[in-house]
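Researcher: Let's do a round of design. I'm pasting the structure tokens now; please hold your answer until I've finished.
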């Protein structure tokens, strides 16, 4: 289980790496099949397990026709608020 839940949509989406520029490319191909992989980042409001809402930077992988996989919270972009 993840330690957060995404609330709303992810904004400010940017591509970090694609194809051979992804360090985890061979693992992604083994785990999910060969694809045109991209690593992306964006911002979203998340709800933590303790119920607190935070704005966070998220990173994830996307493959054509597969969607978002392995979403990770990288850092908080705000101060605590409830």
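Researcher: That's everything. Go ahead.
Model: Designed sequence:
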């Amino acid at each position: 289980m993840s330690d957060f839940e995404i609330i709303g949509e992810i904004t400010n989406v940017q591509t970090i790496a694609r194809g051979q520029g992804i360090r985890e490319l061979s693992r992604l191909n083994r785990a999910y099949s060969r694809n045109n992989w991209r690593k992306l980042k964006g911002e979203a409001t998340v709800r933590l397990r303790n119920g607190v809402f935070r704005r966070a930077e998220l990173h994830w992988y996307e493959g054509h026709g597969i969607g978002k996989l392995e979403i990770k919270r990288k850092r908080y972009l705000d101060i605590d608020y409830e």
